[in-house]
Amino acid sequence: MHTHSFVYLASQSPRRQELLHQLGVQFELLLPRADEDAEALEAALPNEPADAYVLRVCALKADAAHKRLRAGGHAASPILTADTTVTVDGLILGKPQHEQDAVDMLERLAGREHEVLTAIAVVDAKGQLLEPVLSRSTVRFAHADRAALQRYAATGEPLGKAGAYGIQGRAAAFIERIDGSYSGIMGLPLFETAALLRVARVEF
């Protein structure tokens, strides 16, 4: 059967790009066009559980990326999409809108455990969506006073990140322990990603 030398990555996340490099996967970016409302895909439904939300959004991203591929006349090859969310107290913590929003999110996480959910999906070269996969990890945040969280938020690192932190950055100073996938918390669980890419016959 035919194999593929690269995958399209439908994500602007530098962390996901770094993680694919770590696996040795060749990729090309397939990013939303200017006329696409990528943020609208991430809107949660009323009372939607976090795991259902992240799987649904990931599948929507995959569908949008496949339409983008066809409209752009790109060469056929599998497409990889991912979505990460943070959940605590049954709430979905998305990306903070501003610095104060980030501080409020971080205060909710401080001194306790929360879950990080990352869904990944692959559309194969024939345009078929493979069954999306969910990576679930638990993160324990240390106690931290508001001043420390404000200093972290002021670095700008929390902006654009689900739950207002990046485990691979300065927030590592707040994280006591994790149970699950470190790469999944970063935004792309490598074990599950490698397995899906093999099913889609991507060489790496």
Topology:
Blueprint: E1 7-9, H1 14-23, E2 27-29, H2 50-72, E3 79-88, E4 91-93, H3 99-109, E5 113-123, E6 133-141, H4 146-154, E7 175-179, H5 182-186, H6 190-199
Parallel strand pairs: 1-2, 1-3
Antiparallel strand pairs: 3-4, 3-5, 5-6, 6-7
Helix pairs in contact: 3-4
Write up this protein.
With 204 residues, the chain is of the alpha/beta class. The protein has a single domain (7-199), classed as Maf protein (Alpha-Beta Complex). 33% of the residues lie in helices and 22% in strands. The chain has 6 helices and 7 strands. Strands 1, 2, 3, 4, 5, 6 and 7 form a 7-stranded mixed beta sheet that branches. Helix 3 (99-109) crosses helix 4. The protein is globular, with a radius of gyration of 17 Å. The model has no long low-confidence stretch (mean pLDDT 95).
Amino-to-carboxy terminus distance: 16 Å
Number of separate structural domains: 1
CATH class call: Alpha Beta
Bulk shape: globular
Tell me about the largest β-sheet: 7 strands, mixed
N-to-C SSE string, H for helix and E for strand: EHEHEEHEEHEHH
Total of DSSP H or I helical runs spanning 4+ residues? 6
CATH topology: Maf protein
The number of E-state strands comes to: 7
Percent strand: 15-25%
Helical fraction equals: 25-40%
Mean pLDDT metric: 95
CATH architectural type: Alpha-Beta Complex
Our Rg estimate from Cα atoms comes to 17 Å
Helix-strand makeup class? alpha/beta
Low-pLDDT stretches: none
